[in-house]
């Protein structure tokens, strides 16, 4: 007997890292000492006060039941204070913040809440692959917009305006941009808000890297009128070393959030109460938390740049976020070839840029979520590979 899978499942593949990390685990099992510079999962722990709060709350006998579908008030208020303190933007704690099980989940919620079959979605190329998968699963049609290094990896809104946008409902944007590390600017936010309003497109800004190596963290809600046509996803995964906790938030007008809640409340329930209370502690951490995090990442990124250098890649030196992104030399076929050679001949796993879209095919991405010692070891191995003239030609 074979039960047929739904059509929508044929529209997506298993997530790249889900399969690739299985291969990495298998190689390790076979005795290969693989250094994983692939995924952006912070290796450092959350702040000690966050862990203590989690431990004390979880050991209480009460608070283990279902939690509110819209997050507990303590967490919503903490998100609101965080937006005020870090971005100087007022967000109403009861109406304009919807805590989520991570922002990845929110991408699906938004897609399911707004897309009808055939509706089009502008997605960045290169960009986070989940935007495209969520569109497909929701029955929508992706319209990738090319980001180019020459243009600072920013969307060319003038070129988009010349196209027929009548079927476009959503646009995904993400600055600091993953995988390129490009930063957004205030001017970009106001242009996006104008673009969204004029073309009746919901602008969805995904903002998980705003506090990583980004001297001027910003939000699209700094623009007057952004609430009419924008949503923003934020997350504690990267900024607070809590990727496995699954805590994020969707910020937007109460009218739009109400629509998303219709979908979300049918799909999941509120997160663990102790985790929500501990997340509130994380959001209230002072400047020294972000400074200490960035101090570590700054040093690591320098090593990642050295690896790119060794591989003959071209790269910008002011990249925000958890990755170093570099263009492979002309002599190399593409990022896949370079990634394979690093994995199979130097036991270093580096992400090929092509998994983020055709615009990333000539690039590779190195994660800095690995301690300095291991990153340095990866650098030494790559150096050996290049020295032995085994580097991809
Ligand atoms: C651009 C981008 N958005 C969203 C996510 C997912 O974040 P979260 O852990 O909050 O689901 C990631 C994770 O790598 C990401 O790179």
Report on this structure.
The chain has 393 residues and is of the alpha/beta class. Helix content is 41%, strand content 14%. The protein binds pyridoxal-5'-phosphate. The site of pyridoxal-5'-phosphate has 13 residues, from helix 5.
Instruction: Walk across the major sheet and give the strand order.
Output: 2-8-7-6-5-3-4
Oligomer: single chain
Number of domains: 2
Distance between the termini: 50 Å
The count of DSSP E runs of length 2 or more, i.e. the number of strands, is: 11
By CATH reckoning, the class of the largest domain would read Alpha Beta
- CATH H-tier superfamily of the largest domain: Type I PLP-dependent aspartate aminotransferase-like (Major domain)
Quick description:
This protein is α/β, with parallel strands linked by helices and 393 residues long. It has helices at 7-10, 16-29, 48-58, 73-87, 103-114, 129-137, 157-161, 186-199, 254-267, 273-283, 287-310, 335-346, 372-387, and strands spanning 35-37, 97-100, 120-125, 141-146, 168-173, 202-206, 230-235, 248-251, 323-327, 348-352, 363-367. Helix 3 (48-58) packs antiparallel against helix 10 (273-283), helix 4 (73-87) runs parallel beside helix 10 and helix 5 (103-114) packs across helix 9 (254-267).
